[in-house]
Structure formats: structure tokens, C-alpha cells
């Protein structure tokens, strides 16, 4: 019996090749999308699950409320860790303080590399259960030690044993390699995504906390004087096995409030645990409450995946029921020779399974081929788990679910035919089956139109944001992180040397890169300020030449100038700051801060340094040569960048021989701000294309069938004098109506979803109405194009022939 | 007695009017009979045959088949009944185009859950009997009409039915092919199989032992 089913399934597939290609191809595309999205979702949701204790690890965050606005931060005061360790010992397995992770220079003899890592207390290795290839979890006990990743060990020592070798950190301290850990998997990070302004790199080293204290006086001061109001440290904890995040949260929430000096209590600091499982997917906070984060995309693409598969299943249903007449005779015969309905249902379900299985095999091939491209697009390193039985059993489950979803309706429909009717050939497609098929087509095109509208809206939102003025000229601008003390006091000579090469137009230093803000301060006072207003203003410490280098635009007043000695204490505000402080005539006003009085000499137009989707925050620019972290270079135009960079590197090597010359184009760094959105644009573009393509495949099949069915009608009409164009119109009209109906359904749904998405952005577009019209029209044209082959063929047929077949 | 129809009515409602397809049909068929149903187009011949074959329901009356009252049986039961005792032969042969001769013959046995080895023997026997061994791997479309009907008859016989129902079995065949088929029916009948055929041809009707004439759904005598 089974063999018989298999035979007939196979022969039906090979006999109707076009139909089979559409059916299997469509399903394979749908399955490919589903598998790719499934792999991606698996990767996203298993983030950090490689850490043995991931269920108990958390980073401590703090909510602070100023002027009614609550912001969530990860920087905490030094004494907090000790307080947790000592007073709440029972609740924590480990409490680990860490520095801000970032690039540090590691050197062995002449070799210097920028490596990403952090200084952490010694329990870190045990807490994160890093897999040590060499050494053990006690490796950080010695304050002059370091543990490095496998790849870093390889980069410095090749095949030699790195253990016991000496390295230098930031050209400052010598440390001994005491351990090598296995590279973290790509979907793991020991740092909370909350702090990642830019996407974080892979962890390459951990150095002992004590070394950090020893090499930074301000840390030592914070430790020795137990400063509760100096927030510069991160605290990671592993709660003990018997406590819960919830219970611990309740206990610790007020610790900070209880210890900070009176003046800081105003912001009502509340600390809480941010569990490791949420670091990646739920790291976005608004007004102190978690508002999701990457999880949104997981959900969205999950839905898209299911819908694309549904579209493919609908194709299958549509084509199978449309072809019912061809199979009807077989149903009749089988019934007369003794098959019962269940056996027929079984047979057709089995056929659907065969089709789905073939599609799945094809889909696996497609996934394997497309994965590199997909990885590039999604910024992932997913591999197809070929040898994982779980993957294959889920795959089989997917095949079963799909074949049931796609096959059950046709199976029930076909097997319910009454044998005598179909054998007499009196079966005409029932109107109910007809309207069911129409409903399916409407679903398909509704989804397609929604996706097309979504793609257009995402596109426009990105364009809109990119088109706003950013307040400076990011072209041919590069930034170099200083990282070491080697450049201290060499500003003028470096600038002169660089300018002398002719490839650098201007140079300036700043404390924050142009695409981020690293400092903000409170405690500003000015005339007319409401005493209860708690200030918080970004600061960027710059050199005299900053404005000229980045090409900012003065809105009022003047730029910093070496001609005025008093400029060393002067302030330049951005327009947002003027508004924030509510200054009527800002030039010449005095602003007081803890270090004295400052005169406002100029106002610049807002520079977009943080999220381009949010309003620019208030910022003060002031001259501080000793606080700068970056060197910004404006390249001379009309020089080849490669050549220019080579010359610049030579100059840098002269000034700081042991510092690797690493730079970043501001343009590229700015572009990174759109990474998530750009990815979304690409993916939604691809998915809408696929959805439309699959829908059109189905439409093509359906049109073929309809043209076939109406052969007689068309013949009669032609005999009676209908022209080809009028026939074409008649055949296309039905489909056009379906697509217009889809459009009407799609508009409110698409509008709702895109409004929801746009809510994520303060700077957002209003969805223009033409988008809907354009999407519907576009889809309509594609659809008509699809059916036109069949329609024209049918219309051109010789009526004598088509009538003879009756 | 093989089967008995008592006061069978069948109708359809068309535009508020009840149109009778079968009207008060009474019929008794003994085992071993060869009956021909005749009548003009639309007189209800095929409908009657389908009712006898349990492929079509009726609206009123009683139908007993081998001491089972068909009108009270559930569909599944009914299917088992005709699966076991009745074989069908159609004017348009109704072979499955995607299956070979061999597979077409094998299909009814599959639905009877016959074991593979037994199936092979039975099919081989039938191929031999109808002299179509050489055609067993061909598809229906590769055969002539007569050959296709031969396969159709063989398929009807393969389940060893007591009753063969044939709806104009020679209607699509030329006279020589038609004669061959009728000879086969005659042969079968002599072996004890009951045959009921619908036919337009007096000549074919002549093969039978009894003729039933229908007009407008009614049995007419003579």
C-alpha cells in the first residue's frame, strides 16, 4: 500500500513538472526562510547559555531619577562590592568588580596589539566558568598576572607555550601570563549589552583588578576613602543557589541610597540585578523599566518566518485543490475498488509529506549555500548543525507540521468526492472551494503587501535620519585612540609634524570620540537657574583646533582661539544646552561649576554624537589638554587615503613607537549607528521579496489552472467575437480584485505595526499615505505580470481547438 | 437470492420540483443471473446500477444484499460489503493513468490488505487469464481501448466478486473489441458470477438471461 502511494506520488510529481517545481520550489523557499530564521533565533536566545552559571549571574544596574526622568546606568561606586560581599554574604556566591571593558595595548618585546578586555577581580574566572586551556581559575590571584584568549596567545607567542611569559599592559606594567582561556563562542559576551555603545568585540584578556587599582591613582583614592559618590566601576554577581534574583533585588535595592552622601540622595538611586540571560536580548531601559531590546527583533523575525512558511503552505493548498479535477477520477476509482475515505486522506497526506520532504531537502541545500551570505547580513557566525540530532528532529517536526498544515485541507477536500459524480465527470469546482482559494490568495497578498510597506517605511525612516544635518563634516575625518601616556605633552609637536606631511589638513584632540559621549557631569549653576533643577550635561574636553578639524558650525559667538588666554576656561555650548539651560542671550553668560566660573564664548549647532534617532543632548565643550583620549585628524583632500594613512602612521610611530597605529574613519563609526536598522532594512527587503515571489508562484499556478478551466468559456466568447485584449482584461480582473481586497486589509495592519516600530525612535517619519498606494500598485503590477503569460496564452488559443476538447 | 430491491425511489429537488430518477423499482436478482438493463438516455439505467453498486444512495425503499439490509448500514460497512462482493466495469475504463497495468490490477487487493506474496500470485494469475502478461508494465495510455477495458474487467474480477456491474462496458469500443468483452462476461457468468450490465445494444443484451427496461425511472414490463 505504502509503495503504491509512493509510486503514485512520485509519478504525479514527475508527470506534472511545472506544477511540481512551483509546489516544491515554493515550499523549499518558505522552509529555507524558516530554517534560517530558526537558526538565527536559536543563536539569539541561547546567548550566554554557554556559561555554566548563567542562570545565577547578573550585573548590578542602578536607576537614578533626575528632574522626573529615570535613567538606568551600570557605573557604581567602589565600596558597593565590599558591602555586598560582607553584609549580604549569604546571598552571593561571587561578587566581582570590573573596569570598563575596552581596547588596551598588550605588548611582548617589539610586538604591540590592541586587545579587547578588562580588569576584574579574581573570582571572575570562576564565576564565568571560563574554560581554561592552560592554568586554572586561580590564575588572577597574583596581581601581576594576566589571562589571555587562545587567539591572543597565538598572536603573540605562536606555537610556544605562553605560560609564564611576560607581557606589558598599556606600555606601563609588566604582567605574567598565568592562563589561557578558550575563545568564547560567538553568541556569548561576559559584558552586558547595556554598556555597549558600539557592538562589543570578543574578550581577549582579563587582567587582575589589583593591577588596575595600582596603576590608577583615582581608583586607589576611591578605594581608600570609600567614595560612595564616585561611580566608575561595574559590579557582577553570582547569586547563591538558594536565592532568587527577585529576593536579592528586594534586599539590596536601597543599599546605594543608604550610603551615598546627602547631596546624592536626591536622585533616589535604586540598584537591581540585570540577569545574564537578559544581557543580550533585554538590555534596553526606558524610564528605569526594561523595554526589551534585541528581543523585539527575535519576535518580529519569528513572526515573519512563520508567515513566509504559511505563504508557501497556502501555495500548496491552492494548487492541490485547484488541480482537484485531475485527481478526482483517481479518487472515484479508488473508492469504487474499495478504498475508504481515511485511506484516501492518508494517501494525500502522504503525498503532501513527500512533497514537503523533497522541499526540505532542497531547503537544506539552499540554507547551506545561503548561510555565509545570511551570516554576513545578520552579523553572525551560525553554522548548520549537521551532526546535531536535535536539529534533525526539529527539522523532521517542521516537515511534519508543514505537511499537515499544507496537506490537510486538500486531503480532506479531495477524499470527500463522491465516486459516481467524479467518474461521470460532472465535478465542477464547487463555489465553496473556489472562494476558499480566493481567501487564501488574499491572505498571501495581504502578507506580501504588509511586508512591502514595512520595507518602504524602514527605508524612509533610515533615509530621513541620515539626511538630518549632523553638525560637523564627517568626511575624511579619522580618529585615533591614545590609550597610553606616550602622547602626553606632545600635542603641538605632533600636530606640526602631521601637518608638515601635507596629508593632514588639521588635527585636534578630544575626550570623547565624535560618535560617542564618554563624560557627563552635574552640579552646574548659572544665573536664573531653578535651585531644585538637577543638572546633567555632557562634556567634551577638546583642544583649540577641534572646531576647525571637525568643521562644526557656530550658531552664535566665536570658536576657541589661542589669541585669548582666557579661552582656557571658556565654554562653548551646543544649541541643546542653551535650550536646556533656558539662556536668553548665552554669549558672555557665566556658568559656575566645582572648578570655578566659566564664560560662554560661543554656541555651536548640535553635533549628533550619540543616537541619531534621539534628540541631541545638551553638551559643553571646553579646553582641557590633559583630559583628552582621542586624536582627530582631518585628511587633506585629493590625497589617496591609503597613502595618507601610511604617512600618518610613520609620524605616529616616531612619537610612540610601542603603540600600534589603529584608526577609525568617523564616517564608518557614524554608519555603525544604523547597523541594527540597516540590517533590518536588508532583511525585511529580502523577506518581502521572497514573500511576494512565493505568492506569485502560487498565483502563476492558479492562473494556469483557471485558464485551463475556462478554455471552453474563452472559446465560446471568441467565437462570439471577443478580442484578445478584452479576454485578457476579463481573466486579469478577478485577480486584480483579490489584490485590491488584500490591499484594503493590509493597510491598517501595516500601519499599526509600523507605527509601533517607529515608536522606538524619537526622530521618526510620519508614514506617508502614498506608501500604501505605491505598495498595492507595485504588488498589483507584479501579479498581473505573473498571470499575463497564462491569460494571453488562453486568450490567443484557437477557439476551434478549445471547443473540440469538450 | 443475491439481492432484492423493494420500492426504491430516488429523486433530486430541482427548482422547487421533485424530479424522480428512480420510481418504485422492485427487483430480485438470483445468483448466477446475467441481467441487461436497457432504456433510452436519462431513463435511470446508470442510476439504478449505481444504487445496486452502493455507490449512490436512494431516498426511499429497501435494499437487501446477501441478507444484509443496505439501507440501514453505515457507510463504512457498506464499503466493506461492496469491496468484498462487487466488481465494477466502466464505459470509460477508469484506470489510473499514473499506474501500470500490473499496479492497477493490484490496487483493489491493497485495499483488502492482502499479503504481498499472495497479491503477486493473484495478479499474475489474472494477467495470464486475460493474456496480458506482456502488457503488465505498460501504462493505460499505451494501450488500445479494447486492451484497457480488458484490464478494467480483470480489475473488477481480481477481488473474486459475486457480482459484476458493468456500465456500458463496450460503449467506447469497436464491434470486435466489444464482442470479445461480451464473450468474457458470458464465460464468467457460466462460471457462476452474476453480471448486471447497462447497455444500449440489443445485441449485447442478448448475451444476458433477462432484460429490464427502464423509462423515466420506472421499470416497464415487456
From TrEMBL, chain A:
Membrane topology: Multi-pass membrane protein
GO cellular component: plasma membrane
Keyword terms, alphabetized: Cell membrane, Membrane, Transmembrane, Transmembrane helix
Location (main, coarse): membrane
Coiled coil: none
Transmembrane helix in keyword set: yes
Top-level taxon of origin: Bacteria
Chain segments annotated as transmembrane: 21-42, 297-319, 348-370, 390-414, 435-458, 686-707, 735-753, 765-787
Pfam families: FtsX, MacB_PCD
A GO molecular-function descriptor: transmembrane transporter activity
Domain MacB-like periplasmic core: 20-254, 446-650
Residues of the ABC3 transporter permease C-terminal domain: 303-414, 686-799
UniProt-annotated location(s): Cell membrane
The keyword Membrane is assigned to this record: yes
Protein name, UniProt field: ABC-type antimicrobial peptide transport system permease subunit
Lineage: Bacteria, Pseudomonadati, Bacteroidota, Flavobacteriia, Flavobacteriales
From TrEMBL, chain B:
Keywords: ATP-binding, Lipoprotein, Nucleotide-binding, Transport
One Gene Ontology cellular component annotation held by this UniProt entry: membrane protein complex
Protein's UniProt keywords contain Plastid: no
Pfam (any one): ABC_tran
Every ABC transporter domain range: 3-220
SMART domains: AAA (SM00382)
Single GO MF descriptor: transmembrane transporter activity
PANTHER family: ABC TRANSPORTER ATP-BINDING PROTEIN YTRE (PTHR24220:SF648), IMPORT ATP-BINDING PROTEIN (PTHR24220)
Protein name, per record: ABC-type lipoprotein export system ATPase subunit
Amino acid at each position: 500500500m505504502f509503495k503504491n502511494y509512493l509510486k503514485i506520488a512520485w509519478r504525479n510529481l514527475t508527470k506534472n513538472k511545472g506544477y511540481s517545481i512551483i509546489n516544491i520550489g515554493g515550499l523549499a523557499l518558505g522552509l529555507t526562510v524558516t530554517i534560517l530564521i530558526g537558526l538565527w533565533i536559536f543563536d539569539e536566545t541561547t546567548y550566554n547559555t554557554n556559561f555554566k552559571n548563567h542562570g545565577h549571574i547578573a550585573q548590578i544596574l542602578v536607576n537614578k531619577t533626575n528632574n522626573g526622568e529615570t535613567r538606568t546606568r551600570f557605573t557604581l561606586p567602589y565600596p558597593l562590592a565590599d558591602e555586598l560581599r560582607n553584609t549580604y554574604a549569604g546571598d552571593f556566591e561571587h561578587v566581582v568588580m570590573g573596569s570598563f571593558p575596552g581596547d588596551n595595548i598588550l605588548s611582548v618585546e617589539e610586538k604591540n596589539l590592541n586587545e579587547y578586555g578588562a580588569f576584574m577581580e579574581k573570582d571572575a574566572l570562576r564565576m564565568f566558568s571560563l574554560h581554561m586551556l592552560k592554568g586554572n581559575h586561580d590564575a588572577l590571584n597574583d596581581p601581576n598576572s594576566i589571562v589571555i584568549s587562545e587567539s591572543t596567545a597565538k598572536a603573540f607567542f605562536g606555537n610556544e607555550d605562553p605560560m609564564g611569559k611576560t607581557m606589558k599592559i598599556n606600555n606601563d606594567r609588566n604582567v605574567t601570563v598565568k592562563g589561557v582561556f578558550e575563545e568564547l563562542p560567538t553568541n556569548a559576551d561576559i559584558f552586558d549589552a547595556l554598556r555597549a555603545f558600539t557592538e562589543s568585540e570578543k574578550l581577549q584578556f582579563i587582567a587582575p583588578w589589583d593591577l588596575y587599582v595600582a596603576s590608577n591613582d583615582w581608583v586607589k583614592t576611591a578605594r581608600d576613602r570609600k567614595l560612595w559618590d564616585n561611580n566608575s566601576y561595574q559590579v557582577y554577581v553570582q547569586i547563591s543557589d538558594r536565592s532568587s534574583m527577585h529576593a536579592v533585588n528586594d534586599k539590596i535595592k536601597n543599599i546605594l541610597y543608604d550610603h551615598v552622601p546627602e547631596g546624592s540622595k536626591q536622585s533616589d538611586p535604586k540598584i537591581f540585578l540585570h540577569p545574564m540571560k537578559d544581557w543580550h536580548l533585554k538590555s534596553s531601559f526606558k524610564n528605569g523599566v526594561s523595554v526589551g531590546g534585541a528581543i523585539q527583533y527575535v519576535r518580529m523575525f519569528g513572526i515573519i518566518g512563520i508567515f513566509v512558511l504559511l505563504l508557501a503552505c497556502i501555495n500548496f493548498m491552492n494548487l492541490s485543490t485547484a488541480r482537484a479535477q485531475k485527481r478526482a477520477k483517481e479518487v472515484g476509482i479508488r473508492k469504487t475498488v474499495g478504498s475508504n475515505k481515511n485511506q484516501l486522506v492518508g494517501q494525500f497526506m502522504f503525498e503532501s509529506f513527500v512533497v514537503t520532504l523533497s522541499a526540505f531537502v532542497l531547503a537544506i541545500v539552499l540554507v547551506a549555500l545561503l548561510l555565509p551570505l545570511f551570516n554576513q547580513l545578520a552579523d553572525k557566525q551560525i553554522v548548520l548543525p549537521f551532526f546535531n540530532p536535535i536539529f534533525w528532529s526539529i527539522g523532521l517536526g517542521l516537515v511534519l507540521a508543514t505537511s499537515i498544515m499544507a496537506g490537510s485541507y486538500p486531503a480532506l477536500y479531495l477524499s470527500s468526492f463522491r465516486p459516481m459524480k467524479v467518474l461521470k465527470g460532472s465535478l465542477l469546482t464547487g463555489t465553496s472551494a473556489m472562494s476558499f482559494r480566493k481567501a487564501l490568495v488574499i491572505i498571501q497578498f495581504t502578507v506580501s503587501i504588509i511586508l512591502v510597506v514595512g520595507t518602504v517605511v524602514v527605508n524612509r525612516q533610515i533615509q530621513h535620519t541620515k539626511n538630518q544635518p549632523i553638525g560637523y563634516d564627517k568626511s575624511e575625518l579619522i580618529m585615533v585612540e591614545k590609550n597610553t601616556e606616550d602622547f602626553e605633552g606632545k600635542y603641538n609637536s605632533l600636530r606640526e609634524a602631521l601637518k608638515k606631511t601635507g596629508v593632514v589638513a588639521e588635527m585636534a584632540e578630544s575626550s570623547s570620540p565624535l560618535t560617542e559621549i564618554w563624560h557627563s557631569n552635574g552640579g552646574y549653576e548659572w544665573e536664573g537657574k531653578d535651585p531644585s533643577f538637577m543638572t546633567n550635561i555632557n562634556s567634551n574636553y577638546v583642544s583649540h583646533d577641534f572646531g576647525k578639524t571637525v568643521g562644526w558650525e557656530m550658531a552664535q559667538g566665536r570658536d576657541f582661539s589661542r589669541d585669548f588666554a582666557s579661552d582656557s576656561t571658556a565654554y562653548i555650548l551646543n544649541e541643546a544646552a542653551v535650550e536646556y539651560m533656558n539662556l536668553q542671550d548665552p554669549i558672555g553668560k557665566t556658568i559656575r561649576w566645582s572648578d570655578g566660573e566659566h564664560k560662554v564664548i560661543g554656541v555651536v549647532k548640535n553635533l549628533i554624537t550619540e543616537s541619531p534617532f534621539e534628540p541631541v543632548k545638551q553638551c559643553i565643550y571646553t579646553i582641557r589638554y590633559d583630559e583628552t583620549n582621542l586624536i582627530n585628524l582631518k585628511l587633506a583632500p585629493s590625497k589617496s587615503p591609503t597613502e595618507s594613512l601610511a604617512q600618518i602612521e610613520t609620524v605616529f610611530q616616531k612619537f610612540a613607537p610601542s603603540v600600534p597605529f589603529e584608526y577609525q574613519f568617523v564616517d564608518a563609526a557614524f554608519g555603525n549607528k544604523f547597523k541594527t536598522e540597516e540590517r533590518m532594512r536588508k532583511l525585511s527587503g529580502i523577506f518581502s521579496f521572497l514573500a511576494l515571489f512565493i505568492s506569485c508562484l502560487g498565483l502563476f499556478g492558479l492562473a494556469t489552472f483557471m485558464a485551463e478551466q475556462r478554455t471552453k468559456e474563452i472559446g465560446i466568447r471568441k467565437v462570439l467575437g471577443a478580442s484578445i485584449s478584452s479576454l485578457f482584461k476579463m481573466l486579469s480582473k478577478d485577480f486584480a480584485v483579490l489584490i485590491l481586497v488584500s490591499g484594503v486589509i493590509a493597510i491598517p495592519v501595516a500601519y499599526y505595526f509600523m507605527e509601533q516600530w517607529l515608536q522606538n525612535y524619537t526622530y521618526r517619519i510620519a508614514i506617508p499615505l502614498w506608501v500604501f498606494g505605491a505598495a498595492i500598485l507595485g504588488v498589483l503590477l507584479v501579479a498581473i505580470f505573473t498571470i499575463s503569460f497564462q491569460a494571453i496564452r488562453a486568450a490567443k488559443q484557437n477557439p476551434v481547438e478549445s471547443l473540440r476538447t469538450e | 437470492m443475491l439481492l432484492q430491491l423493494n420500492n426504491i425511489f430516488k429523486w433530486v429537488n430541482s427548482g422547487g420540483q421533485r424530479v424522480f430518477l428512480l420510481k418504485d423499482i422492485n427487483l430480485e436478482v438470483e445468483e448466477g443471473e446475467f441481467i441487461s438493463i436497457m432504456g433510452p438516455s436519462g431513463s435511470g439505467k446508470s442510476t439504478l446500477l449505481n444504487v445496486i453498486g452502493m455507490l449512490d444512495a436512494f431516498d426511499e425503499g429497501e435494499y437487501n444484499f446477501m441478507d444484509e439490509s443496505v439501507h440501514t448500514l453505515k457507510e463504512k460497512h457498506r464499503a466493506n460489503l461492496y469491496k468484498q462482493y462487487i466488481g465494477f466495469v466502466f464505459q470509460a475504463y477508469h484506470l489510473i493513468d499514473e499506474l501500470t497495468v500490473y499496479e492497477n490490477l493490484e490496487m483493489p487487493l491493497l485495499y483488502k490488505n492482502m499479503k504481498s506474496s499472495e497479491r503477486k500470485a493473484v495478479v499474475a494469475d489474472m494477467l495470464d487469464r486475460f493474456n496480458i502478461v506482456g502488457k503488465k508494465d505498460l501504462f493505460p495510455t499505451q494501450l488500445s481501448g479494447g486492451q484497457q477495458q480488458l484490464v478494467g474487467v480483470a480489475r473488477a474480477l481480481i477481488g473474486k466478486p459475486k457480482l459484476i456491474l458493468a456500465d456500458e462496458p463496450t460503449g467506447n469500443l469497436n464491434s470486435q473489441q466489444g464482442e470479445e468483452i461480451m464473450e468474457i462476461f458470458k464465460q464468467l457468468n457460466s462460471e457462476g458470477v452474476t453480471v448486471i450490465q447497462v447497455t444500449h445494444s440489443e445485441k449485447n443484451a442478448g448475451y444476458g438471461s433477462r432484460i429490464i427496461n427502464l423509462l423515466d425511472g420506472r421499470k416497464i414490463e415487456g
